[in-house]
Each structure stands twice: as structure tokens, then as C-alpha cells.
Amino acid sequence: MNLTSRQRAYLKGLAMNIDPIFQIGKSSLTPELTQAVSEALEAREIIKISILKNCADEGNTLAQMLAERTHSTVVQVIGRKIVLYKPAKEERKRKIVLPN
After folding, report:
1. What domain range is 69 assigned to?
2. Are 73 and 84 in contact (CB under 8 A)?
3. What is the mean pLDDT of the chain?
4. Does residue 95 form part of some domain?
5. What order of strands is seen across the sheet that includes strand 46-51?
6. CA angle at residue 19 from 17 to 65, to 5 degrees?
7. Which of 34, 76, 86, 100 has its CA 20 to 30 A from that of 67?
8. Which CATH number goes with the domain that contains 33?
9. pLDDT, tens digit, for every residue of 60-79?
């Protein structure tokens, strides 16, 4: 999903007010973590993830890999924080309405 700059800015604004719900550590991206992120995206649509200092992988690389595996969109990567977005499959469950 390609976001316009306006949509990305809107999502960044929403992400400012949420806390990270996952941490990526030494074991990096495990199948369990990927599954949990996917489930959280379905429930929340936008999530923030922290990368711990003991994780050797680069933030942008992790973000791209997670986005591919969960079929989501990388909103932003700032330092050791990743923000991912994925609209809910069912339209009636969608909480976030993107501007056009």
C-alpha cells in the first residue's frame, strides 16, 4: 500500500501518542514475534515497536522485513522505533480513516 505524504503525516501524528507494544531484542525477528505483530496490526491498525540495544539489525531493514511478512506499510523509522500501519481487513472494523 502506497501512502501519500498527507496520509503518512496523519499516521505519524497518530503514532506520536502511542507507546511501543513490542520490543525486538537479541533474537531479532522470530516467527512468534512476526505472528504477534500481525495480530496486533489487525486489532489496532497502527503499532509502534522498539528495537533494543542488543539487537544487531538495522531499524530500516527490520521495518521492511516486518512490513513484508505482515503485509503492512512502514509509516516511519526514527532511531530505534518502528511504526507500522495496516488497515483492518473488514471495513466496519477500521478505526483509522486516512485523509485523501
Report:
1. 5-88
2. yes
3. 92
4. no
5. 22-24, 46-51, 81-85, 73-78
6. 110
7. 100
8. 3.30.110.60
9. 999 999 999 999 999 999 99
Q: Tell me the C-alpha distance between 62 and 58, whole Å.
A: 6
Burial class (CB in 10 A: 0-12, 13-18, 19+), 32: exposed
Q: What's the CA dihedral at 27, 38, 1, 83 to 10 degrees?
A: -60
The mean per-residue pLDDT over the stretch 14-39 comes to 94
Report yes or no on 98 lying in a domain: no
pLDDT of residue 2: 82
For residue 28, the one-letter residue type is S
Q: Which amino acid is at 12?
A: K
**Residue 96 within a domain:** no
Amino acid at 25: G
Q: How many domains does the chain have?
A: 1
Residue 1 has pLDDT above 80, yes or no: no
Q: C-alpha cell of 78?
A: 526514527
pLDDT at site 17: 93
